[in-house]
């Protein structure tokens, strides 16, 4: 049985006082156990500045794909300030795909002095941030000129993880052919340090060449990998642990820039996140 090593810390952190979501927050879903013998799996869904330590609960459409390949909605969810907890029934042995499709987010941007800044709603008390406008990646409506031009960008996000009860199986791994997703060479419930992880990056069922992906472990800098001409990626690991893989399509080098963008945002972008465990 593989117990998520961050579970105990994460669960305690979820009980603490909530904080607002900042630009640096990373959304994820994470099971308490990646491998289990139980009849239910509990999943936490949150956004965080400290990977896998919940800061702000997130919601959306939760679904589960069973070992038989059947997809169904998950309705047993409890929303707390810093985390959403979801319980997934595990009736049969095999590998389950748990997916969170977040509601598409429409953001507005404007160009101020050569930097593209996101436009946030005004604060309830009408106050301005302590940081100067030049030191942050966003602006408030009161800081915009009367002739400011706004550009909209719609972001679609999919978060996934896999839980295996008993022996692993492969039907739940079948790509849907929609949006940004991964086609795994091997079962993502069986990742080992000496073997690594191989997959193809797909968009609407077609391989995405040169797609950039990031893989991060708590407390360490992300590792950036690039898919080959066939969309194939092979990731290697130096130690066991829990990891988060992220990708944005089309490639966007400025997606994590907290101090504004040099280029305007894409009209539509697609984000994918996968939490997984690597065993020794």
Automatic annotation (TrEMBL):
**According to the UniProt entry, where is the signal peptide?**
1-24
Q: Does the entry feature the keyword Transmembrane helix, yes or no?
A: no
Positions of the region Disordered? 248-280
The residues forming a coiled coil are: none
Question: Keywords on this record?
Answer: Signal
Q: Does the keyword Signal apply?
A: yes
Which regions span the lipid bilayer? none
> Per the record, where are the segments of Polar residues compositional bias?
266-280
The protein depicted here goes by the name DUF4198 domain-containing protein
